[in-house]
Design brief:
Oligomer: single chain
Distance between the termini: 23 Å
Radius of gyration: 19 Å
CATH superfamily of the largest domain: Nucleotide-binding domain of ferredoxin-NADP reductase (FNR) module
Number of helices: 10
Largest sheet: 7 strands, antiparallel
Mean pLDDT: 89
CATH architecture of the largest domain: 3-Layer(aba) Sandwich
CATH class of the largest domain: Alpha Beta
CATH topology of the largest domain: Rossmann fold
Number of domains: 2
Helix content: 25-40%
Length: 297
């Protein structure tokens, strides 16, 4: 039964209204969602698990910001699979069935001194709250962000606002430095900057390369990991990683870890475990996309 208008309204009160939803770059989205309790409690580095509908896949997304007074949280995400592609169709005023959080341990922030916050691709949105928290703690924040092309760079104004210095790279040289974020990090070292801490968020190869470089200079480096995750409470074990030779669960022990201790080989293999199923899901999505677009129109 559809239920009375009052019953439908009561159900919607338990759901999470999309306050705004806009495209930042091709396949990159910026969504503001009603979640008052999470907005009041969330800290930099934490995440939520989202379900669009009751039977939808559970998706972990980093909390990119929030307004405790307005009761909203900011989710910056990229269309990477069937579920996030479908989420990209959702419009302002629609409701997410579940938004659970804040989950994970907050990023440890203190006054380190000079801090580098590195973001690669969609990771720029995820490093933003860390950069903001570092600045509030009295650190001198140098932000390094990069993407494959100029069109894929996101939230530059937000990052610039919280940074003492912002360095930008693109793989193809279409904007900023022609190269990788690690090249810019090396430039900081070469010019004599004393770097007290590095935070890196982005694709695994980027985080791995950053850690390989900072290890040579004994610069403490934290990375935010993104393995496959199911329940987000440490019960399923799907998000296990090896850090310093010990098994850790990203959802409860992380998502931040000492990058110099992470087994990136294992992490890479685990991320590839469901590639065949992911490909099949995307093919299904592409075949039925027109019907789903109609449901959100």
């Amino acid at each position: 039964m559809a239920g009375t208008e009052e019953q439908v309204w009561n159900r919607n009160e338990l759901m999470h209204r999309i306050v705004s939803h806009k495209l930042l770059a091709p396949a990159a989205h910026d969504m503001m969602v009603d979640a008052p309790l999470i907005a009041r409690k969330r800290k930099a580095g934490q995440f939520v698990i989202v379900r669009m509908r009751e039977l939808s896949e559970r998706i972990p997304l980093t909390i990119a910001g929030g307004d405790p007074i307005a009761g909203t949280i900011r989710l910056i995400y990229q269309e990477a699979g069937k579920s996030t592609m479908e989420m990209g169709l959702m419009k302002e005023g629609e409701f997410l069935s579940d938004v659970v959080g804040p989950l994970g341990k907050p990023t440890h922030i203190e006054k380190f001194g000079t801090v580098v916050c590195m973001g690669g691709g969609i990771g720029t949105g995820e490093i933003l709250p860390v950069a903001q928290a570092c600045a509030l703690a009295g650190n001198r924040v140098i932000s390094i962000v990069g993407a494959r092309t100029k069109e894929l760079l996101i939230v530059l104004d937000d990052v610039r606002e919280t940074s003492a210095e912002l360095l930008i790279s693109t793989d193809d040289g279409s904007f900023g430095f022609h190269g990788f974020v690690t090249n810019l990090l090396q430039q900081l070292v070469d010019r004599g900057e004393k770097l007290d801490k590095v935070f890196a968020v982005g694709p695994v190869p980027m985080m791995r390369a950053a850690c390989n470089m900072t290890r040579k200079y004994s610069i403490p480096t934290e990375v935010s990991l993104n393995p496959i995750m199911v329940d987000g409470t440490g019960m399923c074990g799907a998000c296990r990683v090896t850090v310093g030779g010990r098994t850790q669960f990203v959802c409860v022990d992380g998502p931040d870890f000492d990058g110099h201790q992470v087994d990136f080989d294992e992490l890479t293999k685990r991320l590839q475990a469901y590639r065949t199923l992911e490909k099949e899901a995307i093919e299904y999505w592409e075949k039925h996309r027109c019907l789903l677009e109609e449901s959100h129109s």
